[in-house]
Design a protein that fits this description.
about 375 residues, alpha/beta, VC0802-like, Rossmann fold, 7-stranded mixed sheet, about 30% helix, about 20% strand, elongated, RlmKL-like_Mtase_CS, rRNA (guanine-N2-)-methyltransferase activity, RlmKL-like_Mtase, Class I SAM-dependent RNA methyltransferase, methyltransferase
Amino acid sequence: MQTYQLIATAAAGIEALVGKELRDLGYETKVENGRVRFQGTMKDVIRTNLWLRTADRVKIIVGEFDACSFEELFDRTESIAWENLLPLDAKFPVEGKSHNSQLHNVPSVQAITKKAIVQRLSNAYHRRTRLAESGATYPLEVAINKDHVLLTLDTSGAGLFKRGYRKNKGGAPLKENMAAALVMLAHWFPDNPFVDPVCGSGTIPIEAALYGHNIAPGINRSFICEQWVNLVPDGLSDEVHDEADAKAIYDIELDIHGYDIDQNMIDIAQENSRAAGLTHDIQFKQLAVKDWHTSKVNGVIVANPPYGERLSDEASVHELYRQMGELYRPMTTWSKYILTADMEFEKYYGAKATKRRKLYNGALRTDLFQYWGKKDRSKIKALQ
């Protein structure tokens, strides 16, 4: 089976997490801005699409070169053996982007790239008429940065954050892969309590449950590469899905709770958890932040509360932060991870974070304010 040069794309700030996921899966990686490079066969392509919790997409690198003129772009693109990837009837839309490059007109870049591929395929398949493009879709991208061209083939189709369980959402949903990133950054162990006090449509608790059960996040969806009969051997996709399903740990009991002040959001969260097959793994309840109390220890709180730019007015948001601080500060064995775009969060929370990490929720700059708890070791020993 052929080995491909691959990249897993990622939101700014979580590339290192994607790299760790890939290394945990057994791949050698090179982490770059917005992506992680690795190598693999088509089986690895399907496997990483299934398993990567924090990545956006998995792409095959088709070509990489420098180009400062449209002639160079055409010639270098046309020299690639596209017939090894694209069958005669392939539909191959070409998206484009360009930054800090001499070839800055994106529509022209796309058109020249497409023309070069058409010429290559027409010659390879001995076609004098227009290519039909009536078969499976092979989404291509030409990305130019500082005159360096990267030609890629998207194997994912819909973004990997689309797990398939979100049947409904609230007013400001967090993408599933960003929610998974927050769970991973919290260093949560499945034998400890996990709480999202402002759970909205339930994305963070659901991602925690998938992680806790070691369920592949893409297990209930398909990927565009699975339609490529010329590249994917018959039965390979089923084989990889079966291998992933066999690794799930369903018999572990999880202590995951999601709360929200809005009963409508709790109803949506429950609907989404049912769609994910996690009805009995997460307890959702309508409850205000200030009304929650617990005697449990060594837990983790992960929250994406509303911030000034979304859903609520500034005064009520700051009051929410104050309530969080008042309630959470005495909980010294609990770790708290709170994502917000409000850079004054610590002021209203009433304590300086142990660590801050810059993340992007879409195009919005946010910070993950981390308050690390000190584990009660006596409780851990008592549970063993």
